[in-house]
Amino acid sequence: MEREKIVVLADKVRSLGAHKGILISTSGFQSGAIEYARQHGIALLQIFDKYVMHIQASINLQTNHMLMEFIRQSPEFYAYQWNTRLNDFSDKKIYPSETMLLEIKNKVLKEYNEDSK
């Protein structure tokens, strides 16, 4: 996302007298946009589709039935907050939580172990 969109949001935030703004996107943010957001108190969040997240994290795209079940039971989207000090990578996953993912993983493992008996 380009800087121009951040400028428009910052102007709206200022005109409303608000202290902070949040911009949510399904695409990345340009370095100029990230810097402008940092200077003007705009939080940047990026949303990823769950299948994209797991494919990007995979080195080997072989079909793993437990992984596919984990993905199927996971929330549809993942949300990341951008650290305005970094230009290329989102900083912090904010949804789903690690606790949520661990619960899903344990559920899938339990189902898999029961099916194996």
Explain this structure.
There is one protein chain. The chain is an alpha+beta fold and 117 residues long. The protein has one domain. The protein is 50% helix and 19% strand. The protein has five helices and four strands; from the N terminus they run αβαβααββα. It has helices at residues 3-16, 31-39, 50-57, 65-73, 98-116; strands at residues 21-25, 42-49, 77-81, 92-95. The chain has a four-stranded mixed β-sheet. α2 links the parallel β1 (21-25) and β2 (42-49). α1 (3-16) runs parallel beside α2 (31-39) and α4 (65-73) crosses α5. The longest helix has 19 residues, at 98-116. The model has no long low-confidence stretch (mean pLDDT 80).
The run of helices and strands is HEHEHHEEH
Broad shape: elongated
Approximately how much beta-strand content do the residues carry?
Answer: 15-25%
Biggest beta sheet attributes: 4 strands, mixed
Q: Note the gap between the termini.
A: 50 Å
Q: Helicity level, as a percent range?
A: 40-55%
How many individual domains? 1
User: Runs with pLDDT <50, length 5+?
Assistant: none
Rg from Cα? 18 Å
Q: How many DSSP E strands? A: 4
What is the overall pLDDT average?
80
> What is the strand arrangement across the widest sheet?
1-2-3-4
Concise synopsis of the structure shown:
The chain has a 4-stranded mixed sheet with strand order 1-2-3-4. Helix 2 (31-39) links the parallel strand 1 (21-25) and strand 2 (42-49).
What would the keywords be for this entry?
117 residues; alpha+beta; four-stranded mixed beta sheet; 5 helices; 50% helix; elongated
Secondary-structure map:
Elements: H1 3-16, E1 21-25, H2 31-39, E2 42-49, H3 50-57, H4 65-73, E3 77-81, E4 92-95, H5 98-116
Parallel strand pairs: 1-2
Antiparallel strand pairs: 2-3, 3-4
Helix pairs in contact: 1-2, 4-5
